[in-house]
Amino acid sequence: MTAQLIDGNALARQIRAEVAGRTQALKARGVEPALAIILVGDDPASQVYVKHKVNDSSETGLTAKLERYGADLAEAELLERIDALNKDPSVHGILVQLPLPKHMDSHKVIEAISPAKDVDGFHVASAGALMVGQPGFWPCTPHGCLRMLDSIGYELRGRHAVVIGRSNIVGKPMAMMLLGRSATVTICHSATADLGAMTRQADVIVAAVGRQNLVTADMVKPGAVVIDVGMNRNAEGKLCGDVDFDGVKEVAGWITPVPGGVGPMTRAMLLVNTIEAAERATA
Ligand code: NAP
Predict the structure, then answer these.
(1) Can you tell me the distance from the alpha carbon of 62 to that of 60, in angstroms, rounded to the nearest whole number?
(2) What is the spatial distance between Cα 200 and Cα 139, in angstroms, rounded to a whole number?
(3) Is 163 exposed, middle or buried (0-12, 13-18, 19+ CB in 10 A)?
(4) Which pTM does this prediction carry?
(5) How far apart, in Å, are the Cα atoms of 128 and each of 139, 239, 272?
(6) N or C end of the chain, less CB within 10 A?
(7) CA distances from 237 to 43, 234, 248, 256 (A)
(8) Beta bridge partners of 163
């Protein structure tokens, strides 16, 4: 079998066009949807991510307000700035780029963001809303994965999904989203005794670990959907996922590539959350 590709770039393009339409509709009512992005310090990867977020926002007509601070910014000053943004009605979404400098407590900083503006979906209130099935903001990466499954018309009800990885921003929310669609969900992690025995039972595998070639063809049930969240560098320095793409594509029914899979979808879902925040605030 040669798996069909789930093209994250194409789907993200479609989602950006949808967001652009929703942005125009808000502007027609006099609302300028805006995202505040806070970058503290000069971490090179963070600078690249933030640049993408600013560009993606402008391309879809959203206003991105980038605030840059030196690595020596006091935590109290950052919390004050977040408080001001929470109260500013012209700002609909607030994103604090992680990681923060070591002297800051990331959890405390994220908790300072109003849940109504938490477009990254990292606030405890957002996690809680997902858990109990109430409206909130879903973290962008797992939300993007779910949209990829929807894009192929995949019926999750009654299927067995295996999520590898249990981080608060990917694995756990992914599992909750799949459970919300009535899939049976198994969450694996570094202490899972026999990963292959789990994944071989799966109709859907979501790999979110950060280890190249963790998922190989012998671990995949024929026809399964394989979503690769991992971002790693191979020996040649090229971006690759957690899945041995060349081997697994011969067994799986559907597969996402790296690059061009979950990455662009994560970026697109931030725009979705931002427009959603602006719509909710001005409804
Ligand atoms: P993380 O916080 O480091 O979590 C990794 C998870 O993998 C942990 O739950 C860990 O288990 C588990 N794990 C480690 N080794 C394992 C093994 N041998 N077998 C099974 N599970 C194992 O990472 P993350 O932030 O969730 O990110 C995961 C990957 O996704 C990274 O490569 C990251 O770069 C990528 N990512 C991509 C995007 C995107 O937009 N494409 C977005 C976010 C993250 P324990 O909990 O037991 O330690």
Answers:
(1) 6
(2) 27
(3) buried
(4) 0.98
(5) 12, 33, 20
(6) C
(7) 19, 5, 21, 20
(8) 187, 206
Is 97 assigned a catalytic role?
yes
Q: Which of 97, 118, 172, 249 is catalytic?
A: 97
Please tell me the CATH code under which domain 140-263 is placed. Answer: 3.40.50.720
170 lines ligand 1 (CB under 6 A): yes
Known catalytic residue: 53? yes
Q: Do domains 30-114 and 140-263 have the same CATH topology?
A: yes
The SS3 of residue 95 is strand
Closest CA to 200 of 143, 251, 127: 251
Place of tokens 């994965």: 145
Question: Which class is 30-114 in CATH?
Answer: alpha beta
Q: What is the mean pLDDT of each run of 10 residues along the chain (283 residues)?
A: 94 98 98 98 96 97 98 98 98 98 98 98 98 96 98 98 98 98 98 98 98 98 98 96 98 98 98 98 96
Residue ranges per domain, the chain?
Answer: 30-114, 140-263
Decide: helix, strand or coil at residue 162.
Answer: strand
Residue with structure tokens 């109990």? 132
